[in-house]
Amino acid sequence: MAFKKRTDKPTTRKRRDEAPHKRQRAMDPQDAVDVNDVEALSRFVTDYGKIMPARITGVTALQQRHIKKGVRRARNMGLMA
User: Fold this and answer.
1) CB atoms closer than 10 angstroms to residue 74
2) Which of 5, 10, 65, 81 is the most buried (most CB within 10 A)?
């Protein structure tokens, strides 16, 4: 005995090509990162003090390296906790 396919179930799945997610860029790719600007660096740090990944913040790989260096320097100098 063969089973009948249910057709009364609505299809509400999103397709991958329908709604691509754009990440919100924290800064333009051409902008330089100032490692001494603690207020700007604090945007890239969570409440627990962890550096947010580039896939979430939307910065380039070079900017992410500068942010990492700046946050670590600020932590060592005692400017950021």
Assistant:
1) 19
2) 65
Give the pLDDT confidence score for residue 41 in this predicted structure: 92
Tell me, what's the pLDDT at 21?
Answer: 55
* 48 in a structural domain: yes
- 33: phi then psi, degrees, rounded to nearest 5: -100, 125
Residue 66 lies in a domain: yes
For the stretch 6-42, pLDDT in tens is 777 666 666 555 555 556 677 888 888 888 899 999 9
For residue 33, being part of any structural domain is answered with no
**3-state class of 64 per DSSP?**
helix
Coil, helix or strand at residue 41: helix
Q: Note whether residue 64 is domain-resident.
A: yes
| Rounded CA separation 59/9 (Å) | 42
